[in-house]
Each structure stands twice: as structure tokens, then as C-alpha cells.
């Protein structure tokens, strides 16, 4: 549990040369030791043992409202309350939970979302009122700004999706009460995201919470009689079920249709990425890839689809972030399976609900680094974005170049373990070069980032001689990363000035193994 | 200095700012009589380039001899060549269009281009929109057109001219032919004064109806080239957009040695005829065939109009195929997405290339054996067929459709 006062930070230099706090929110930290250097010991965390005698024999765990559920869960000051983000910006339940706790007089809570969204801006009021002490989870928009300005009492802790599972599993974060918004559930607590008016697809981000939290509340706006099938969340882990009229705004939960970028420059980047996979020989029968739902990623999938057809090549599986574009691949027989971490549009939701080859996955199977392997490292190629990448191929996704918190890590860090990790980025945005001398916030070590694709050229990490050799005869504009950087500096009018940051930490970036990779510093007032 | 005076003094602006604007800036210049230069900067990139933007603006003011002023800059991530063009434009507006030309460093490379080079695609870039300039060459059209005519609002002719001039010096357009579409005369003559010293590769002359118009433009260019010691040619491409223009097509093509191509503007042409422009283009069939014939008779290229529906790539492809079949050698593009489709449509087919290669090989054989008659198998090949095959092979090589060993 968090301490209420922020001690002056003791900093240690980690293996990436970054000064990082040795204590975060009262807990001792291990500075990052290098990729694969940290050896975990001990046993996994576990929730208390329960007994059937304490639960209704008829399986009906319903209580009248969220407040009753929280009271029955023993809500007290300083507790850790978790939520998931499958409902994205449409979610109403995480905020409702914290506001209910506020009405009940709770103080100094730690909110532990799998990600936060702009509609949760009112959490700022709860932090100012002392209800929420701090947030451990992605912060962007207004919350990111609040944290970046040093207004939050504790330190922000940014973790990847896999790192969040790892932290829960390893006992770094103990969840007192998990509140799981569910598009469909039964009175026993079995829950699914595939159906219901607020359908969101999978519920994988809430799985660890349901397994490891002391108390678990399922909140649904579509209660069905037992059994709720498929039970993505198992009722055997659930304490209470609350029925509400609405868990969120369906129009913001999934988009009706996801849109491919129309920017010619971004389309060019997407085409280069697809051609790179083809020319490097990665696109071959039985291969696998992952791409998100960003504009470039969607366009990449569309280009790759055409090239796969032309070459008569099929993928064994693809991982998403599923969208219409991945569903098209599946329906055309161009992939055997979709392993879906989160579902972005209606086509994706429909497909997950009806196609047995479209399977929901969780951060445990896909991303957890403290397991016996995961899917991410078995994927041949993954296409990612970044806010910055430096000439040593280190990547930043969490802060804007001026140091402001901008994005969560998502699955980004976990995906770096793929066979070929590609960052698809414009070479500059609004005159701000994307290829920098040193990233503002280290989120991914350069040794794991293989290729940077921009509209001005493709840079291959010199560590990947195999990829350099494989694309020797390609017509693609392959250049050194320094060459692209210099071209961009020439266009933008020289090297940019360095943003001024204070020496006061406001958040830390965790590596996939729970060690501290870098520090986010408070902005100049 | 009192605020009242400051508010009463007139201001002069150039450029655009706002949430939807990218890579541009709005400069507001307020001349003063004392107090030195005061620059007020608001920029979304001030953290990184704030000092650079101020220095750039100050440099332009110094070069123009401004001593006292208030300069307000609302910047949306404009590149240096845009900043200097906008500051110069604002000051010039205050001075009734006069003022020293402040040129950015010339970084773009200057290589003279062949008169009969490939002109399959030419990408129109609105001259008032710098954001489209920067990455245009990455999409690999054969040419880019910095447009000062129809895409530029009448109130922005003066500012766009400076922007296009600076772009010719500072933007790397790669291997693209750098074309400028000037305004109709007499406004077009002022455009020439600003852009010709930066030697664009080609000038498009809009709404050309008579050979005299071409001659006037050619004379003006020759004059400016002489003053600026430019010896490389600047080619001309008249755009025929009226019934009268079509009637004079051959004379226009022959009006000056630097004319390398004729092209057609179908929007204006169909309006002149009073007919509806269709995707099939039956209404302009006569004009297009006539233009092709006139161009070939004069020994210049025939280039087709633009295709307006950027979302309909299939119809564009069909149009391109018909256009090539009629004798056109290229088209205009209004979106980078059209470029690849047009290149594909204007490429000879593999069967055409194979056949032409065989004929060329037979021709080379006959030549080396000193035989006058070229034959392929049992068939004799006429000289015009040989010539066509030679041309096709040349073109296919230029399009990278033939591997070097073939």
C-alpha cells in the first residue's frame, strides 16, 4: 500500500545509465539490470482462501448496488482498487467506483487501472480531494498532464500489459478490490465481453485482477441466467455481482468502423513495412504477425493482405488488437487464427463472438515475462508506433518530446521480443524530429528494436545483420538511422533545442520484469 | 510605448494559423516608428525551435531593413523556408508590394532535365499550402507542379508566389521535374519575375489560346534568365482549356522551341463548350484527339488532364488506359495515391515489351549483318514498326520495366 508522503527521491543509476528512484510509493525497487538479467525468486502471490460456506448455494451473488458491494468488500482508506480498460473511453464503471468510494468517505486509495482514458478526467478532482492518493497505470490527456506537473501525491508507475500481470502475480501490487465492468454476466459472476449492448470483445485485461484480488466485484448491464458462456471471467473468483442500467457509452467502447489512414505519407510508411516483410522473407507460408489499430498499422495489414494473396502465402496466426482488417484476413483464409488481446471495432466483436478461430487471449498467455514463455516472443513480426526513437534504436512511447506523459505502454514493451520488431513512424511531426539523439523517456531498449520505417527510408538495427543481408537486393530505401536523422534535421532547420525538465520524478517506467527502466521528470512550471 | 498607439497602428498579415493548420504560420507585422523590433511568438514547437523561429524572423526583418516593428507569430510547426516567406510577405504587404527579396539558402539541387523525359504523372501542389510540398517527392511522381493559379485564392497570389519561390530553393523534390503553373497573363508575368530566377524546370501556361501568349511568356523568361545568368533551358507546357485554344493547338505547340508538351484542361474546356464533363469523356474526345495530333505534328508530348475523383482509382486506371491508347504520354494528379495507378496505366504491357524487344533484336541483327530488310521469322518488319519498337523499348527502360541484361 502507498505511503502518504513523497520522500525525497534517492536515485540509482540503472544498466541503461538512467537515474531511477530506489523507492517508489514506499516499495523498494530494483533498477533495470539489462534485458534478461533480472532473476525472479520466491513464489507467486495468492488471494486468501475462500470457502463455499460463505457464498450462496444457489450461486446468486447479486447485491443491490456498487456501494453495497464495496461495503461488503470492506472498503477502507489506503486500499488498492483496480479496473480494466476494455470499454476504453466509453467506460463508466471505473469512475463510478471511485466516486462511490468517495461518497462512502474513503481516502488515500490507489487506483490501479489497466489503462486510463480522457473521460476519466474527474479522477483529478478525487485526487485533489484526497480520495485517490495516486494512480499506477497509463496516464494520458488531462491525467497525464496532472501527473507531469507534479500534482499527484505518489509516483505514477507505468507498466506494460504484461508487466501489470507480472506485478500482480509477483505480489508487487496487491489488489484489494477489483471492479470488473462486464458487458454480459450471470448472477454467479461468470462474465464475457463478447455479447450484450456494451460488447467489447475480450476481457483479458481483467483476468489477473479476477484471479489475484482479495475481493472481486462484477458489474454488468446485461445479466443473463447461469451459465454466461463463454466465461472469460470465472464466477468462482467473483464475490459480488451488481446489475446497473449501463456500464458505458457503446459508441465509445468500440468504433463502428476503424479507418485506414488517408495521409499519403502514412500510407507510404505502411507500404514500406509490408514490402520490408516481403523482401526480408518474413512473409512466408505459416508466418505470424501482430499489428495494432493505429492508422499506419491498419494500412499495413491491407497492403500485406494484397501481397500475401499475390504470393499465395498464408499466416498461421495473427495477433491483434482485432479490427475489420484482421477479420477480413481470417474470413479470406489468409490466416488460420486471430489471437485477440483487445477488440477495436464491431466487426472484431462479431467475429470473436461467432468464429471459433478468433480467440480471446490475455496478458498471461501473450505478454507476461515471469511465466514459462509467452506468445509475443513467438511472433515473427510486430509493427509498433513510437513517439521517439533514438540513433541507438531505443524507443519512447510514454512521453511527448517535451517530457509530458502522453501514452500508456500497452503491450508495446512485451511486443519487442518478437522475431522482428518494427517501429513505423513518420520521420518528423509538426517540425519535431522523431529520430533523436537520445529518447526523452526510455521505454524500450534498442537491442530489441530491429527496424525503423519512416517515409524517408528504412533503418535496420546494425545488430540484425541477418535482416541487412536478407534485404540487400531490395528496392526499398534502406539507409542508416543517422542518415535519416540528418535528412530530417536538414528539413526541420537543425537539431531541436532540449526541453527543460526538473530533477523531480513524477513517474517511473517499469521494464517487463518489474525493474525500473526510466524516470519521468516533472515539467518546468 | 503606449498600447493605444500600438492598437491604432495598422497591421499586415500573411499565412495561416489555427487548429487545423499544419506546417504554416500566421505573421502579423505592425510597423512602428521607434522602439526597435519586438517579436511575439506563439508556437506549438517553441520548446524545440523557439529560438530558431525568432532568429529566422529577425534575419528577414534585418535584411529587409526593418528597424522598428511589432511582429506577432502564430506558428503551427512551419519549416524555415515557410517562416521567411511569410515574414517577407507580411512586410511587403505593408510596403505596397515592394521590398527586398530575402532568399533562403539554396539546398535543392539543380540539374537540367531532358526535353523528352518521362512525364507520366505530374502532381499538383497548391501554392498556398506548404504542408504538401515537403514530402511530395517521396511519392515519386515524374513531376511536381507548384501551382499559383486555380488552387490559390486571388487574395493570396502575392504570398504564394514567395512561398513557391522559397520552395524551389529549399525543398528537395528529388528526381521530380519541378514545374510551376503561373497565373494567366498579365498576373503570370509577376509570377515569372519571382520564380524564374530559381530556375524551375518547366512553366505551365494556363488557358493558352494563341501562340502570341506563349511567345510573351517565353520572352519574359528569356529576359529574366539573361539578367540572372541562367543558361539551362526552362521548358514550357501550354495548357489548352478552350475551343479557341484547340483550334490553335499546332501553332501553340510550334510557338517556341522550349515548348515540350501540350496538355488539356477539361474543366474549363467542357465549360467553354457548355457540356457536362463525364467519367467516360466522350464530350472531349474531339479535343483530346486533336491535341494529340497537333502535339505529334509539332514533335512534342501530348499530356492528358487530371482525373478528379481521388477515391475512384479503378475509373482512373480505365481512363489512363484509354488515354495511353489515344496517344497521351501522361496525366495530371491531384493526390499522391493516383501516381502509382497512372504509372501502371501508362506502362506498356509485358506482351508489348516482349514483342518490341524481339523486333529491336531483329533490327540489330540486320544492322550488324548489313542487311537492309528487317525480318522476324517469315515476316518482314516495316521501318515504322521498327521505330515504334525502338521508342517503346526506350520508354520501358526509363520506367524500369526492362532489366539491364534484357
Quick overview of this protein structure:
The complex is a heterodimer of chains A (525) and B (406). Chain A is an alpha/beta fold.
Low-confidence stretches of chain B: none
User: Taking strands numbered 1, 2, ... along the chain, how are they ordered across the largest sheet of chain A?
Assistant: 18-17-16-15-19-22-26-27-28
CATH class term of the largest domain in chain A: Alpha Beta
Strand order of the largest sheet of chain B: 11-10-9-8-7-6-5-12
Question: Any guess at the CATH architecture of the largest domain in chain B?
Answer: Alpha-Beta Barrel
CATH superfamily of the largest domain in chain A: Glutaconate Coenzyme A-transferase
Please tell me about this protein's structure:
- With 525 residues, chain A is α/β, with parallel strands linked by helices.
- Chain A has two domains: 11-253, Glutaconate Coenzyme A-transferase; 264-494, Glutaconate Coenzyme A-transferase.
- Helices cover 24% and strands 23% of the residues of chain A.
- Chain A is built from 15 helices and 30 strands.
- In chain A, the strands form eight sheets. In chain A, strands 18-17-16-15-19-22-26-27-28 form a nine-stranded mixed sheet.
- In chain A, helix 8 crosses helix 9 (295-311).
- Chain A starts with 10 loop residues before the first strand and ends with a strand.
- Mean pLDDT of chain A is 95; it is low at 1-7.
- Chain B is an alpha/beta fold and 406 residues long.
- Chain B folds into three domains: 3-94, 2-Layer Sandwich (Ribosomal Protein S5, domain 2); 121-345, Alpha-Beta Barrel (TIM Barrel), CATH 3.20.20; 350-398, no CATH class.
- Helix content of chain B is 42%, strand content 17%.
- Chain B is built from 14 helices and 14 strands.
- Chain B has helices at 3-8, 46-64, 80-94, 157-170, 187-195, 211-227, 243-247, 249-253, 266-273, 285-298, 313-326, 337-345, 350-368, 383-398; strands spanning 12-15, 25-31, 37-43, 69-75, 121-126, 143-147, 177-181, 202-205, 235-240, 261-264, 301-303, 331-333, 374-376, 379-381.
- Chain B has an eight-stranded parallel sheet. Chain B has a four-stranded mixed sheet with strand order 1-2-4-3.
- In chain B, strand 13 and strand 14 (379-381) form a beta hairpin.
- In chain B, helix 13 packs across helix 14.
- Chain A binds chain B through residues 264-265, 267-268, 401-402, 429-432, 455-456, 490-494, 496-497, 499, and chain B through 22-23, 44-45, 47-52, 56, 76-80, 107, 134-135, 138-139, 172, 335-337.
Amino acid at each position: 500500500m502507498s505511503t502518504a508522503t513523497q520522500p525525497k527521491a534517492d536515485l540509482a543509476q540503472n544498466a541503461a545509465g538512467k537515474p531511477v528512484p530506489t523507492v517508489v510509493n514506499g516499495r523498494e525497487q530494483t533498477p533495470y539490470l539489462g534485458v534478461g538479467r533480472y532473476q525472479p525468486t520466491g513464489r507467486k502471490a495468492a488471494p486468501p482462501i475462500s470457502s463455499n460456506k460463505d457464498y450462496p448455494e444457489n450461486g446468486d451473488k447479486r447485491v443491490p448496488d456498487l456501494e453495497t458491494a464495496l461495503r461488503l468488500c470492506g472498503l477502507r482508506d489506503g486500499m488498492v482498487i483496480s479496473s480494466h480498460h476494455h470499454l476504453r473511453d466509453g467506460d463508466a464503471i471505473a469512475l463510478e467506483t471511485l466516486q462511490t468510494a468517495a461518497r462512502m468517505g474513503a481516502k488515500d486509495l490507489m487506483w490501479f487501472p489497466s489503462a486510463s482514458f480522457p473521460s476519466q478526467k474527474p479522477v483529478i478532482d478525487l485526487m485533489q480531494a484526497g480520495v485517490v492518493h495516486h494512480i499506477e497505470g497509463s496516464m494520458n490527456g488531462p491525467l497525464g498532464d496532472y501527473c507531469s506537473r507534479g500534482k499527484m501525491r505518489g509516483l505514477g508507475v507505468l507498466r506494460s500489459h504484461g508487466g501489470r500481470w507480472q506485478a500482480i502475480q509477483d505480489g508487487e501490487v496487491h489488489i484489494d478490490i477489483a471492479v470488473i465492468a462486464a458487458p454480459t454476466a450471470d448472477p454467479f459472476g461468470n462474465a464475457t465481453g463478447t455479447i450484450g449492448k456494451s460488447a467489447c470483445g475480450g476481457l483479458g485485461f481483467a483476468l489477473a485482477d479476477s484471479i489475484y484480488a482479495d475481493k472481486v466485484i462484477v458489474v454488468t448491464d446485461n445479466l443473463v441466467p447461469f451459465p454466461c458462456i463463454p466465461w472469460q471471467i470465472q464466477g468462482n473468483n467473483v464475490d459480488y455481482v451488481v446489475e446497473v442500467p449501463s456500464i458505458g457509452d457503446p459508441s465509445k467502447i468500440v468504433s463502428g468502423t476503424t479507418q485506414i489512414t488517408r495521409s499519403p505519407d502514412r500510407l507510404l510508411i505502411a507500404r514500406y513495412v509490408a514490402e520490408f516483410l516481403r523482401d526480408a522473407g518474413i512473409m512466408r507460408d505459416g508466418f505470424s504477425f501482430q499489428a495494432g489499430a493505429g492508422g499506419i498499422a491498419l494500412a499495413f495489414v491491407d497492403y500485406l493482405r494484397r501481397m500475401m494473396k499475390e504470393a499465395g502465402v498464408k499466416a498461421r496466426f495473427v495477433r491483434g488488437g482485432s479490427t475489420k482488417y484482421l477479420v477480413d484476413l481470417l474470413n479470406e483464409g489468409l490466416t488460420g487464427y486471430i489471437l485477440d488481446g483487445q477488440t477495436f471495432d464491431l466487426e472484431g466483436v462479431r467475429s470473436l463472438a461467432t468464429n471459433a478461430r478468433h480467440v480471446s487471449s490475455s496478458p498471461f498467455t501473450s505478454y507476461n515475462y515471469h511465466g514459462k514463455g509467452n506468445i509475443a516472443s513467438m511472433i515473427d513480426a510486430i509493427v509498433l508506433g513510437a513517439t521517439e526513437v533514438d540513433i541507438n534504436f531505443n524507443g519512447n512511447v510514454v512521453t511527448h518530446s517535451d517530457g509530458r506523459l502522453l501514452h500508456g505502454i500497452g503491450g508495446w514493451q512485451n511486443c519487442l521480443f518478437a522475431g522482428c520488431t518494427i517501429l513505423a513512424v513518420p520521420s518528423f511531426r509538426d517540425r519535431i524530429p522523431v529520430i533523436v539523439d537520445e529518447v526523452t523517456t526510455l521505454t524500450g531498449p534498442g537491442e530489441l528494436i530491429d527496424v525503423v520505417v519512416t517515409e524517408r527510408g528504412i533503418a535496420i538495427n546494425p545488430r540484425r545483420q541477418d535482416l541487412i543481408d536478407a534485404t540487400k537486393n531490395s528496392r526499398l530505401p534502406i539507409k542508416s538511422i543517422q542518415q535519416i536523422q540528418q535528412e530530417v534535421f536538414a528539413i526541420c532547420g537543425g537539431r531541436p533545442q532540449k526541453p527543460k525538465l526538473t530533477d523531480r520524478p513524477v513517474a517511473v517506467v517499469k521494464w517487463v520484469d518489474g525493474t525500473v527502466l526510466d524516470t519521468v521528470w516533472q515539467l518546468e512550471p | 510605448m503606449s498600447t493605444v498607439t500600438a492598437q491604432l497602428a495598422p497591421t499586415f498579415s500573411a499565412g495561416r494559423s489555427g487548429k487545423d493548420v499544419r506546417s504554416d504560420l500566421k505573421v502579423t507585422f505592425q510597423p512602428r516608428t521607434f522602439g526597435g523590433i519586438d517579436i511575439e511568438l506563439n508556437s506549438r514547437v517553441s520548446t524545440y525551435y523557439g529560438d530558431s523561429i525568432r532568429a529566422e524572423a529577425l534575419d528577414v526583418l534585418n535584411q529587409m531593413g526593418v528597424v522598428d516593428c511589432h511582429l506577432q507569430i502564430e506558428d503551427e510547426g512551419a519549416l524555415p523556408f515557410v517562416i521567411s516567406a511569410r515574414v517577407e510577405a507580411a512586410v511587403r504587404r505593408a510596403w505596397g508590394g515592394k521590398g527586398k527579396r530575402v532568399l533562403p539558402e539554396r539546398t535543392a539541387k539543380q540539374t537540367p532535365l531532358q526535353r523528352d523525359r518521362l512525364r507520366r504523372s505530374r502532381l499538383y501542389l497548391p501554392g498556398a499550402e506548404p504542408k504538401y510540398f515537403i514530402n511530395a517527392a517521396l511519392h515519386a511522381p515524374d513531376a511536381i507542379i507548384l501551382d499559383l493559379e486555380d488552387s490559390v485564392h486571388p487574395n493570396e497570389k502575392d504570398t504564394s508566389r514567395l512561398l513557391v519561390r522559397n520552395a524551389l530553393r529549399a525543398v528537395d523534390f528529388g528526381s521530380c521535374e519541378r514545374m510551376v503553373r503561373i497565373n494567366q497573363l498579365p498576373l503570370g508575368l509577376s509570377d515569372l519575375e519571382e520564380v524564374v530566377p530559381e530556375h524551375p524546370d518547366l512553366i505551365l501556361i494556363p488557358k493558352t489560346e494563341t501562340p502570341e501568349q506563349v511567345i510573351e511568356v517565353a520572352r519574359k523568361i528569356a529576359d529574366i534568365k539573361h539578367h540572372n545568368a541562367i543558361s539551362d533551358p526552362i521548358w514550357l507546357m501550354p495548357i489548352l482549356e478552350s475551343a479557341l485554344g484547340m483550334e490553335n493547338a499546332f501553332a501553340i505547340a510550334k510557338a517556341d522551341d522550349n515548348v515540350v508538351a501540350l496538355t488539356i484542361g477539361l474543366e474549363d474546356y467542357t465549360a467553354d463548350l457548355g457540356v457536362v464533363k463525364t467519367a467516360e469523356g466522350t464530350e472531349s474526345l474531339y479535343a483530346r484527339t486533336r491535341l494529340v495530333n497537333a502535339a505529334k505534328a509539332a514533335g512534342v508530348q501530348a499530356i492528358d488532364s487530371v482525373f478528379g475523383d481521388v477515391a475512384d482509382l479503378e475509373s482512373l486506371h480505365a481512363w489512363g488506359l484509354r488515354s495511353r491508347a489515344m496517344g497521351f504520354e501522361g496525366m495530371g494528379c491531384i493526390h499522391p495515391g493516383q501516381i502509382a495507378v497512372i504509372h501502371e496505366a501508362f506502362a506498356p504491357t509485358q506482351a508489348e515489351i516482349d514483342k518490341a524487344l524481339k523486333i529491336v533484336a531483329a533490327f540489330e541483327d540486320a544492322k550488324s549483318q548489313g542487311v537492309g530488310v528487317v525480318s522476324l521469322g517469315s515476316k518482314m518488319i516495316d521501318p515504322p514498326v521498327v521505330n515504334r519498337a525502338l521508342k517503346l523499348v526506350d520508354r520501358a527502360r526509363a520506367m524500369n520495366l526492362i532489366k539491364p541484361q534484357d
